[in-house]
Amino acid sequence: MIKANIAIVGRPNVGKSTLFNRIIGKRQAIVLDTPGVTRDRNYGVADWNGKKFNIIDTGGMNFQKGDFNSEINSQVESALADADLIIFLTDSKSGITDLDAQIGKLLRPRKKDVILAVNKADNDMYRLNAYDFYNLGLGDPIAISANHGTGVGDLLDLVTKKLPDQEDPSENDHDQINVSIIGEPNVGKSSLVNRLIGDERLIVSSEAGTTRDAISLDLKTEDGEKFKLIDTAGIRRSGKVQEAVEKFSVIRAKNAVEDSDVSLVLIDAKAGIREQDKRVAGIAFESGRSIIIVVNKWDLIEKDDHTMKEFEQYVRDEFPYLSFAPIVFISAQTGLRVSSILPLVSEVYANSIKRIPSAVLNDVLFDAISMTPPAAHKGKILKLFYLTQVEVKPPLFIVFVNDLKLFHFSYERYLINYLRKVFDFTGVPVKIKARERS
């Protein structure tokens, strides 16, 4: 059980995300030489010498009026409230700035350990500059280079030394369901995550593109189920992906889908289904993820007794390849039917890991053939000998036949639909591959 939270804070562009990536051992946070790339809190899990802890990347603090500064500061403040220990990151190349002094003044009264790290100490001159940071009154500064890894081990030694024992062997970890939330910009992904976790964890704005990174948040329900919610940046059309930040955001979103068990594909009920919605859904479908279609902003639609049924048919017509995906109509803003999402995610996930014994499968195969025998082709008849399941997430079945050329895609589709009728594979793409019996 991981209890300790370590927050990395500091002004913009001192290398917080670089240090975050270095500590967790992978490029989870976007890193560019541009201030303000990180806006929301980003959580990762670190393991140093057998001691595990949560590490929290935060946006750069700035007390001037400007784009998202107050929202970012609010996110940092929440991270500080959650933190058991704080890493205050500064920059040896630029020295102490007025903003560093302001942040230091904010941190000093807190009854929490603060480790002062001086980043970008890439050579002897910059390492000597670290001594100037004693003036912040936060104890001994430790010189590091997050980019090259210099001094990061010493920093983590100090971090783990200050942490109490975190492991609770009495509690066993249960399976965690990874849920990616994808859609076009401004469709309400961050609002939905905030509503699901019951906290304003992510910045929400009417400005498209507020979320730029794939943000992971852990959630444990009252009945003990564990979820990892991955809020992704809005995926724009390729022609509109111009900034380097946005290009990285799209890559992160695709990676988040690959790492998830279930993808929530969000659609704006007011705007309707656009071509980009189909491209976004295609990313999840091509990755073989289980899918739930979430129609958001349903509170903004004028409705009668037939509106939901008509909209559902509209979705089915526009996404014929997602006929297996359930549809839920919600409002992340008001909370309408949001409580139905996680139970549906659990149900879909259970369907995706379902294993069916070969004996049962072959009884079903015999019934399917009896109901609709394969059609003859040029005087030859397809024979199906045996069906077995070889994979889950998504389920993959192998059917042994007499001649691969006779196994037409229409009969493959028939078998998939028959399996769906007998077994509950709601939300899950099902695949069948044919092999010739030697």
H and E string: EHEEHEHEHEHEHEEHEHEHEHHEEHE
Overall body shape: elongated
> Helical amount among residues, as a percent range?
25-40%
Average pLDDT confidence is: 83
Tally of individual helices: 12
Poorly predicted regions are 29-39, 167-174, 201-213, 240-249
Gyration radius from CA atoms, angstroms: 26 Å
| Terminal CA distance | 51 Å
> How many β-strand runs?
15
Class by helix and strand content?
Answer: alpha/beta
Q: Mind summarizing the main beta sheet?
A: 6 strands, mixed
Strand order of the largest sheet: 2-3-1-4-5-6
Proportion in β-strands = 15-25%
Structure description:
The chain is α/β, with parallel strands linked by helices and 438 residues long. It is built from twelve helices and 15 strands. It has helices at 16-24, 69-82, 98-107, 124-129, 152-162, 189-197, 244-259, 275-286, 307-318, 341-352, 358-371, 409-422, and strands spanning 5-9, 42-48, 51-57, 85-91, 113-119, 142-143, 176-182, 215-220, 226-231, 262-268, 290-296, 327-329, 384-391, 396-401, 431-436. The chain has a six-stranded mixed beta sheet with strand order 2-3-1-4-5-6, with helices on both faces. A six-stranded mixed beta sheet has the order 8-9-7-10-11-12, with helices on both faces. It starts with a strand and ends with a strand. Mean pLDDT is 83; it is low at 29-39, 167-174, 201-213 and 240-249.
